[in-house]
Amino acid sequence: xxxxxxxxxxxxxxxxxxxxxxxxxxxxxxxxxxxxxxxxxxxxxxxxxxxxxxxxxxxxxxxxxxxxxxxxxxxxxxxxxxxxxxxxxxxxxxxxxxxxxxxxxxxxxxxxxxxxxxxxxxxxxxxxxxxxxxxxxxxxxxxxxxxxxxxxxxxxxxxxxxxxxxxxxxxxxxxxxxxxxxxxxxxxxxxxxxxxxxxxxxxxxxxxxxxxxxxxxxxxxxxxxxxxxxxxxxxxxxxxxxxxxxxxxxxxxxxxxxxxxxxxxxxxxxxxxxxxxxxxxxxxxxxxxxxxxxxxxxxxxxxxxxxxxxxxxxxxxxxxxxxxxxxxxxxxxxxxxxxxxxxxxxxxxxxxx
Length: 353
Description:
Elements (H helix, E strand, L loop, with lengths): L2 H8 L4 H17 L2 H5 L8 E3 L2 E3 L3 E3 L10 H5 L5 E7 L12 E4 L4 E4 L8 H11 L5 E5 L10 H12 L5 E5 L14 H22 L5 E5 L5 H13 L4 E4 L20 E4 L3 H15 L5 E4 L5 H10 L3 E4 L1 H6 L2 H16 L11
Parallel strand pairs: 3-4, 3-13, 4-7, 7-8, 8-9, 9-10, 10-12, 12-13
Antiparallel strand pairs: 1-2, 5-6, 6-11
């Protein structure tokens, strides 16, 4: 792939503009059938989790394609699954620009995008237009103008509208870029939200005649006691999966960098150890009750294997793609396939997994 040659040119641009240009280039390459010619065939290594058969264990994390506008091109890259969003009931522009900053010396990114998206109706239309038949997660959130005590109404509205289009639905309660959102991870507030979401899931499953799993995306900044509380609530409310985790507010890994004082969430290599520690503690607390999707700081096949050994069933990529390009997808999927052949570290289907 030409990405190693393109990256220096893209890195001369503002990070958000480079992101937009990259997606346009992918769309153009897809329309010319160049991606299927340039990239290896997707790795076939089926993994079952949340009642879904994933073609391989490597997915695209939410945030790269917020509106589901680039699914056909992204599906050429060899992912076992794609997650789009975060989407909100109403379109919103997000936070003021600039709002994305590369931390190239540390292979990281700080972003404070703020759920910028065209709204759930546009996302659903884009999914339908794509004709995508693979495993598709839809990540949902609340509008910035919705009071936090009314957040459940936004999640339920999005659930209603994406249910028929999604293989699974992710509840994003961990972005640091929407005011007060992370307080939804706390005890009573989380329990009340999960109860409403689970009740709506049951009603939608009965109405539409099929069950769409729910996953919850949590922050890597939770203390051990909070992780234990979240794990018990996920089990109690029969949530189908958990994504660990989101971006971090910590700056300890990039202390002294010129952008360390920028507000927003930090992703990429500086997040690697924090994410793995979250996965390990979650796995201990959940004890196999539901699968973990590990995300954060994966830049190599070995990094992904580390997440699996910590207790994840699946992994997702994002910032690693910015620095490594599409070659990372096949490398990661191949490493996990080898790991599955030689070890029994993946969570097995059963017991709500």
